[in-house]
Amino acid sequence: MSIARDALDNHGLIVGVSPERFRAVAMPLLFDHLNAQCEGTIAVNRQARIVWINDKYAEKVGIRDPASVLGKEIEEVLPASRLREVVESGLPSIIDLMAFGDEHFVVTRIPLRDEDGTLVGALGFVLFDRARHLKPLMSKYTSLQTQLVATQNELAKARRARYTIAGFIGNSPAASEIK
């Protein structure tokens, strides 16, 4: 299922190819690329049962025989997985951290749809097996969180009453009654 060279213009862009044909060619290539570049890939069906897991993922999470987990609910194998949420909502989770034992994986989860647009399952990709790859992003996030907390504290301080009845000075009967 390759695209002929004469189907490309002088910039390498596909011309005269229907969207259906492009999708038929591009989707397997995209999947193969993601599968090769990622640290692991897993797929679940509409009921969030595992239908496929690649060897890299199985090895990473300590599964000796990948076939042994086929048909199991995703949470039985990966308790912290959120693939079920993707299947139920139909919405992707582009970058997230997933805990597994003492490790954290950077993952992406995407819904799978058939030609009619019907949700049939979800794919999960382990992008990085260590969150350290996201250190620059996490540093920025931590900095922004720190700034947010400081700003919230300043705002709360500014909103507090500056004067209270306890600070009222005076000994008159009216002042004593107010205190």
Automatic annotation (TrEMBL):
Q: Which GO terms describe its molecular function?
A: kinase activity
Instruction: Enumerate the UniProt keywords alphabetically.
Output: Kinase, Transferase
Q: Where are the transmembrane segments?
A: none
Q: Which domain of life is it from?
A: Bacteria
- Which part of the chain is the PAS fold-4 domain? 39-126
For whether the record's keyword set contains Zinc, the answer is no
Question: What InterPro entries does the entry give?
Answer: PAS-like_dom_sf, PAS_4
Task: Please report the name of this protein according to its UniProt entry.
Answer: Fis family transcriptional regulator
